[in-house]
Specification:
This protein is of the alpha+beta class. It has helices at about 5-10, 15-25, 80-85, 110-115, 135-150, 240-245, 325-350; strands at about 40-45, 50-60, 65, 70-75, 90, 100, 105, 165, 185-190, 195, 220, 225, 230, 235-240, 295, 300-305.
Length: about 350
């Protein structure tokens, strides 16, 4: 289904019904093929004098609906975003009888990190005056972002994060709305890295208090996801286990260890297994280490400026994270695209 056709069908439909219909279309395969491209991002930290580097993957954009050449980023409600993550699963390598979600809603730290590693950074594109919750505003925001990207010389399918994104946080319930809100999001990052709304680097609120119900979605929201397969110093970790790890959680969370599922508190929270406390092998931190290793260059590409044991900046922020050669990019694309087609077949079979 073309994105423009879906938008026309939703002209007079509102959430939560609109979000449910978008989720159904996505799970049935109405997503552009380019969205299956994976991009590698990194975080790092020094813990007890040891240097830990976390590697993970995300898609080029927020969840999209449509097909190559005619697609729109589409803001599901956070409840439907969690359903998307729960519906697309992969078999556990260690236990073939078990499966895990292929995608997770990121933490606020990773939402910011995805933006930092993105290839095309543009200023926020608010629609003024506020246009409400209509499908027309969804389309208008998508078009504004694509125009801003084109003006900067970016392809519409470039790795970009130009909206606010839902994020998971500790103690989220989906119980009755009581004035505090159960919807957490952060983003609309300016070129200097500050954000219009969301958490700052310390995990404290830097915007208005959370005040939306879980069934709410507007034009400024995007559905960001990260893939389940993280590594720390080359050792594989499932994102949920890493986010709950009593020590390594600092690589993915500025808000302490917690279960990255929506909700993760209250009667609807899923049962979870306690992660192992074991730590992977780690080198001693570089003598000149003074903070973040990964910086963003003038062209928006991440640069590695310290710690020679990690790959150089020219090898980060590229598809599949396997270097910048054409051959490696094509191999990464083929692998990711094959996985996407498997998702389509699974969706049609179920």
């Amino acid at each position: 289904m073309k994105g423009s056709d879906f938008a026309k069908q939703m002209a007079n439909v509102y959430d939560p019904q609109r979000s449910a219909l978008a989720l159904k279309a996505m799970l049935a395969g109405s997503m552009p093929d380019f969205w299956a491209q994976r991009y590698e991002c990194k975080t790092e930290a020094v813990i007890d004098g040891k240097h830990y580097v976390c590697s993970y993957f995300t898609g080029p954009n927020y969840l999209c609906i449509g097909e190559d050449g005619d697609w729109l980023t589409w803001p599901l409600t956070v409840l439907d975003l969690q359903k998307f993550c729960d519906s697309v699963r992969v078999t556990s390598v260690s236990n073939p009888a078990d499966s895990t979600p292929k995608f997770y809603i990121p933490t606020a730290k990773l939402v910011k990190n995805n933006w930092a590693f993105s290839q095309c950074k543009i200023e926020p594109q608010p629609l003024n005056p506020y246009p409400g919750l209509t499908t027309t505003s969804f389309v208008a925001e998508d078009e504004a972002i694509k125009r801003a990207m084109a003006a900067k010389g970016c392809a519409p399918t470039a790795f970009v994060r130009a909206k606010k994104a839902y994020n998971v946080a500790p103690g989220i319930t989906n119980e009755e709305y009581k004035g505090k809100g159960v919807l957490h999001f952060t983003g609309w990052y300016r070129l200097d890295g500050s954000s219009i709304q969301g958490y700052d680097s310390t995990g404290k609120s830097s915007g208005e208090p959370w005040g939306h119900i879980a069934e709410f979605a507007d034009y400024s929201h995007g559905c960001d996801v990260v893939y389940h397969d993280f590594t720390v110093n080359g050792v594989p970790y499932n994102f949920a286990a890493l986010c709950m790890h009593p020590t390594l959680h600092v690589l993915v969370s500025d808000q302490g260890p917690f279960n990255p599922h929506y909700p993760n508190a209250g009667p609807n929270a899923p049962a979870v297994n306690a992660p192992s406390n074991a730590l992977p092998p780690a080198p001693t931190a570089p003598a000149n280490y003074k903070g973040d290793v990964f910086k963003t260059g003038m062209e928006g590409l991440p640069l590695l400026v310290k710690a020679s044991t990690i790959r150089t900046g020219s090898q980060t922020g590229t598809p599949e994270g396997n270097g910048t050669s054409v051959a490696n990019v094509l191999v990464g694309f083929a692998v990711a695209l094959g996985g996407f087609f498997l998702i389509k077949r699974w969706s049609h079979a179920h």
